[in-house]
Amino acid sequence: MLGAARGIDRLNRLGFRLAALLSIALLPLGLIAVLQTDRVIAESRERAEAALMGRAVQAASYEKELIQTAIGAGRAFGAAVRSVRHDRAACSSLFRDFIDASDTFVFAGYIDADGVMKCTSEGVSMHFADAPIFQDLKANPRVLARLNTVGPISGEPAVIVTVPVLDGTRFDGAISVSVPHAALLDGVFRASDHPPLDLVTFNAEGEVLLAAGGLDGVADRLPADRPMDTLARASTTSFIARTAAGSERVFTVVPLIEDTVFAVAVWSLDAAPPAQRLITVPTVAIPVLMWLASLGVAYYAVHRLVIRHIRRLRHRIRVFTSARRTLPAADDDELPAELREVSDAFQAMTERIIADEAHLESSIHEKNVLLREVHHRVKNNLQLITSMISMQLRQTDAPEMRRQLQRLQDRVRGLAVIHQNLYNASSLSKVRADVLVREIVDQMLVRAVDPAGGIRVTRELVETTLYPDQALPLALLANEAITNALKYLGAPTDGKPWIDVTLARQEDGQLRLTVANSAGAPVAETLPSDGTGLGTRLIEAFTIQLGGTLTVGETDGTYRLEVVFREVEFDSAEAAPLPAPAR
């Protein structure tokens, strides 16, 4: 409860103070004015751009019609040429009749899938197998429009329209139709009431096909900072830019043939949408002044009433976070009631946190002691089981039974080593996986490999810390992998038998466990195979638990088992269970 010296509680509220200070600001009116102006400008821009787009499409309508006619003719020829393509005379006659009947097109022909053009309107043969354009068309069949500055027949510039011929999805050649520049230029602006200064047609790769102002110097009439292929990707757009020659122009880009041919119309600045020109200062001066005044008042109000108090509270929070020390709250009569409540709540929270942390530390210490005791007892019980198996081994004469008991004893010993490491670990939440794997490997090799047998063993284990839900299956997998290596160990022809164990980190951050051994004539000192396949199933199961991939194989006299996995955070719900043994 606040004292009488703090005044009426309602007047001390932060919301009331901010409302009183912000009431002198004209920011809402300024925002309304700016929004209305922006809306008018946006609507004017949309209308002007739509008008320019329509005029650009109208100016290029004749070019669009001719190129679409060429594409349609190419598709029609693609269907008709299948029946006559092996008859060169009949095929050429088909194209010759089309050219003779046309007042526009000057050449047409069929290029087979091998890049040979034997069937043409002029009866000539040409080879395109090594041409990059043909190779690109063959790999990615699509309609192409290209500029040929020297036509194949007339010698004049022409636009070559190429339509692929497909047999289902298989490329079966292409139809090529030539449209001379002269025919295209004759129709430029024919249907336009308000023609642009220039009209440039280009393909999807940015190559200029036709320019109303002529191909000479066309680059100087185009935008200096926008490559033509980027304009093709932009599809329909309108913008103001400087040409390479330095003139400021309005450019309108429209598609003529979808994903194939585009046109850019060049206009004078008089055609620019109003929103793209400079707005006079009086239009925005009053809203800007209103906004600046409101911003100044709002900043003063927020800083005076909120920010400085929040900074003090932030300082107290930082001191508590770094040193677990609480600073007394400032006795400030100007502190708003809401922030005073926050300060009091923080003070109560810090006291509760300190008490809870003390209790938590005590609980954690007790949990660690109990958990270490559990690992110690489990290790002792596993060692007791190992001793019992040893007693059974000494009383068993059957070789098969002895091998099975030895494998069981090795697995129990591996589990005991894991719990011994967990008991000795400084942190019970993580364990040194490299140390765990090294002890498992050493235990297996000491029992199975005769030191005088001449077997070379190398270990390269990078320092790695894992959560128990990955460290345990990794250690057990190493146990089974060493047994597997001993089973397949052989003497090479050029040296001693060897076993290499590697735990390394790859460039992508994943861990890789590799157990490799020499292959060749069997070594007598190694463990015999139990023949049950249980080891293989366990290796696969441990790989699944690690969330990794298993690779096993023999190449160049080396038998290699490799498991690649990524470190993950501990989540007992994600631990994969071991598969049940086959009955």
Could you give a quick summary of the protein structure above?
This protein is of the alpha+beta class. The chain is 47% helix and 20% strand. The protein has helices at 14-22, 27-59, 61-80, 88-101, 132-139, 181-186, 228-234, 281-323, 337-394, 399-424, 433-448, 468-488, 534-546, and strands at residues 107-111, 116-120, 126-127, 144-148, 158-167, 170-180, 198-203, 208-211, 237-242, 248-257, 261-267, 431-432, 456-461, 465-466, 490-491, 498-505, 511-518, 521-522, 549-555, 558-565.
Topology:
Elements: H1 14-22, H2 27-59, H3 61-80, H4 88-101, E1 107-111, E2 116-120, E3 126-127, H5 132-139, E4 144-148, E5 158-167, E6 170-180, H6 181-186, E7 198-203, E8 208-211, H7 228-234, E9 237-242, E10 248-257, E11 261-267, H8 281-323, H9 337-394, H10 399-424, E12 431-432, H11 433-448, E13 456-461, E14 465-466, H12 468-488, E15 490-491, E16 498-505, E17 511-518, E18 521-522, H13 534-546, E19 549-555, E20 558-565
Parallel strand pairs: 13-16
Antiparallel strand pairs: 1-2, 1-6, 2-3, 4-5, 5-6, 7-8, 7-11, 9-10, 10-11, 12-14, 15-18, 16-17, 17-20, 19-20
Helix pairs in contact: 1-8, 2-8, 8-9, 9-10, 10-11, 10-12, 11-12, 12-13
What would you note in describing this structure?
With 583 residues, this protein is α+β, with helices and mostly antiparallel strands. Among the domains are: 62-184, Beta-Lactamase; 187-276, Beta-Lactamase (2-Layer Sandwich); 429-583, 2-Layer Sandwich (Heat Shock Protein 90). 47% of the residues lie in helices and 20% in strands. It is built from 13 helices and 20 strands. It has helices spanning 14-22, 27-59, 61-80, 88-101, 132-139, 181-186, 228-234, 281-323, 337-394, 399-424, 433-448, 468-488, 534-546, and strands at residues 107-111, 116-120, 126-127, 144-148, 158-167, 170-180, 198-203, 208-211, 237-242, 248-257, 261-267, 431-432, 456-461, 465-466, 490-491, 498-505, 511-518, 521-522, 549-555, 558-565. The strands form five sheets. The chain has a six-stranded antiparallel sheet. Strand 7 (198-203) and strand 8 form a beta hairpin. Helix 1 runs antiparallel to helix 8 (281-323), helix 10 packs antiparallel against helix 12 (468-488) and helix 12 (468-488) packs antiparallel against helix 13 (534-546). It is flat, with a radius of gyration of 42 Å.
